[in-house]
Amino acid sequence: MEELIRNIEKVARDTQFSGVVSIFRDGSTVFSKAFGYRDVKNRLPNTTDTRFGIASGTKLFTALGVGVLIDRGLLSLDTTVKEIDEEYEGFIDERATILHLLTHTSGIYDYYDEEIEQDFDNPSLKIPWCELHTPSDYYPLFKGKAMKFAPGERYSYSNGGYVFLGILIEKLTGRLYSDFIREHVLQPASMQNSGFFSFDDLPENTANGYLEDRRTTNIHRLPPRGGGDGGMYTTTHDLRRLWDSLFSGRIVSRALTATYLKTHYRRDNTRGYGCGIYKRLDDSMFWIVGSDAGVGFESRYIVPERLTVNILSNITDGEDDMRDVLLNYL
Fold this sequence. Notes:
two-stranded antiparallel ribbon, 8-stranded antiparallel beta sheet
């Protein structure tokens, strides 16, 4: 572990890493250190309590929100889109199920298709970013579009699928997605410093996100508030609490948690995908990741060693070099 820590600090110096790297064993801190600035121009440093955006790491929280509805009996993994509302057509096959959406196999139209879009620092949509405050605001982007493929035909990572899950949460609960996730996922997990904060009302000690030039912030490249596919903020300590709460069954039932952590899609000989979460096929490691304009994020839980390993960066792809260091050890 001492050699790993030396390598972490060396890479942080060599790459001018900005963010936090932490290693926890159960509830104890093995290593946790902040680097760089949460506000570059005002030279305000990151701390180990700083909130960072996690981009697509948010998808697990959406999946857990859906899991709450499943535990309540409002949905099942086999519920089809047609059973929820026959209005949902064209952009998704009416036979697509909740499980298809959770596992990126629904074939839904993707408003931000990463199989096509590659310029993550300059994304664009037909609706201005500033008008997208909650998942239901995205619905006009889906109407009149064609689905990509039939449900279950293949895997295709889908931001649109997780935005649509956020839309379904709002439809079935009558609540804003962000409020529902805060009350029914973050609070049970004791993630008190996490949430969906608006760019124009960020709480104290929240990191600005910076593009690769490390000067330009991401406020004109993303929605003002996160939704079903990304945009939540959290801290390294809250992420430790997430993994503990997930495996303890404090967010959704143990039975549903076990289903979520199963391999639903096999990516290669060692890695797979569950519901909103990546995994090793032998169940020895689970992880969530996120990359966006001004965000580089990864959080892993290594089961045999009971280790939580977090990388939170407020630079586009800022986690890349640090991930390589940690994976060489793990």
